[in-house]
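Review form for a predicted model. The reviewer records the input and the model, then writes brief findings.
Reviewer: anonymous (R2)
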Amino acid sequence: MTPFELVEPRSFREAVSLLDPDDSAVRPIAGGTALMLMMKAGMFRPTRLVALRRVEPEFSTIALAPDGSLQAGALATLRALERAAVVRESFPVIARTLRTLSNVRVRNVATVGGHLAHADPHMDLPPVLAALGAQVMIAGPAGERTVAVENLFAGYYETVLGRNELIARLIVPPQGAKRAAYLKVTTRSADDWPALGVAVSLEAQGREVRSVDLFVSAATEKPIRLEAAEAVLRGHAADDTTLRRAGEAAADEVETMADARGSASYKKELVRVYVARAVRTALGLGDAQGRAA
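Model under review:
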């Protein structure tokens, strides 16, 4: 490992000022679960790491705001998010998803902000947060801006973050009457990288779907909204015919990618099947097979 400078700012603002928009070898580090592996493998050789562990403790808090939204600091660990009472009670799909995200050793260290900024398309939380309408607050030299999680990812391991910007906070709006589910398909253990992830958040009257947000991940280079499948579901009863049509629409509209977990055609077939299963799970209709978070 080549030598590098390690700085430990005492404030989030100072941390932003230590980043260099023109130097990709200057990076922030929080939990470091991904970055350290990249460094050990020689894939990344930093000139400076800006450690965030000593900034204000408010960026590690998890709380419910007066309006019912979830406010999680970017430096809160995934384990803290998983165990937080407000998450389990008001956003149970997040807590359920986290139980099989990687493993407990990683969740004890990895942070909310780092997890999102890494932009690995196989990660479980991004499609769930996108389906829930979550946003991130981003801090930079010019101040703060808010970006929907749906729009945070620009491509494979890419986000819209500037090199001198940091995710400061995650905001998940109150869910009201919405019901949500996340299903993933893994080839080995439940906490393995998925071949497919499907997240859905919907409002329904009985079986009739009034509104729906449906995202797919892992089989694609970033979380993708399934607009055609949403259109099939919206305003219709979630019977076998409608769910089959939604699965077909999803498979037709999504461009899947091949990797070690399956071919593109295999993943397209998974999309066709698991869209229906995710909707059934959210509606409490059962018939969810595979690994459901």
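Findings: The chain has three domains: 5-49, 58-172, 179-286.
Further findings: The mean pLDDT is 93.
Recommendation: see findings above.
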